[in-house]
Structures are given as structure tokens and as C-alpha cells.
Amino acid sequence: MTAGPEFTIRPYASEDLDSVYRVCLLTGDSGDDASELYDDPWALGHLYAGPYVTLEPELAFVLEDRDGLCGYVLGAADTRRFHRRMVESWLPPLQLALPEPHGDERQWSRTARIYYRLHHPELVYPEALEPYPSHLHIDLLPRCQGRGNGRRLMERLLEALVELWSPGVHLGVGSANRRAHGFYEAMRFVELFRQGDDGHQSIYLGRRLP
To answer: What is the pLDDT of residues 111-132, one digit of tens each?
Structure first.
């Protein structure tokens, strides 16, 4: 699928893994570069990218230009099933390889906080999400933003979810990422609920399909 004269959308391939992890890191600070915040550059990807491209690669689509992969959208058709598979098959090898932090969590680095979540995953699926059983993540590097690529990626994934008879899809976004919140509203997502304290909230939005 072509996204424009400079960009191409295509299905994820296994050789894209490192590049997907890199985009995850470079957008990991509420859409900004998080590479200076994590001493393990793979940490964020282990939580937000790896399980999707490994467990449901058929719902992973990437955006690329002449300089390489610069964005992606990743989906899970059935969140409950995805969470179960994540706990059963994705997390155990990581839990063996990566240390669980202990002690005063106020002293933990950002990497340590991600490691803790890999050992103690926060798998959110309250009743408000039942009409929206699928979920997604989308990230784009700055060079491909503002050109309609985000909308095209989203449309490609939504088409795939409709083909799987999903009745709805949800996503979460940090309250600090106002640009992303506006984009999702333009894509006809509606706010469902908020989680966390006032200083650091996650906003959950949903959209009925088709």
C-alpha cells in the first residue's frame, strides 16, 4: 500500500524488529525522543512493541521512506486473549533475562520502572472497554508527521480489524501528549475514562467499528 510519493505502508516483516524498537524509543517520551532517558534502549520496545509484532504480526503495519522505517501501527484483535498470551509466552523469557528492581522505587531509573512492569504487568481491561475489545499503538518519527501518514496507518489497521469482525478498538494516551489526543479525536475516537493521578494520567479512548 502506498502512502504518498515519499512514504510506503506495508505489512511488518521480522527483519523490521530492530527498527520498530528504535521508533518506539525515539517516540517514547509522550511522542518525543526518549533515548536519553533509558540506559537500556530495548526496554520500552519489550513492553510496547515486541509483544505485538511477535504475537499478532498480521496486525502490524510499518511506514517507511528512503531513509528507512519511520513509523508503525500495532494492533491486538482481542485484548483479553492478547494479555493472556503476553503473560504466558512473551514475558517469561524477559523476566528471566532482566532483573526485577527492589528497594525504594523512588530511586528507580526509568529503565528499572519498565523492568518492574515486565515482571508485574499492568494489564488494563475494565468493563468500559468491553464494547472495544481490540486495541492499538501507533508511533511516527517527526519526519513523517503532519503528512497524513498517521491517518493512513490507522485506516489500514482499522480495515484489518473490520475484516476480523472486531466491533470496536481502544487505545491509551498520556495526558501530556495533547497532539496525539487531538489526532485520535479527529479519527473519531471518544474518551472513555482516565486512570492515574492528575499529574500523570492515561486517557483511554475508543471507536466502534466499522
So the answer is: 999 999 999 998 989 999 999 9
Enter the pTM of the model: 0.93
Q: CA torsion sign, 116 to 117 to 119 to 125? A: positive
Q: What is the largest CA-CA distance in the chain?
A: 52
Q: What are the phi and psi torsion angles at 170 (to 5°)?
A: -130, 170
Question: Which runs of E-coded beta strand occur in the chain?
Answer: 8-11, 60-65, 68-76, 134-140, 168-174, 190-197, 200-208
Three-state SS for 166? coil
Residues whose CB is less than 8 angstroms from the CB of residue 49 and which lie 6 or more positions away in sequence, other chains included: 20, 21, 23, 24, 72, 74, 137
| Contacts of range 101-107, beta carbons closer than 8 Å, 24 or more positions apart | none
Please tell me the distance from the alpha carbon of residue 66 to that of residue 71, in angstroms, as a whole number: 13
The answer on pLDDT for 173 being more than 60 is yes
Res. 199: pLDDT tops 70: no
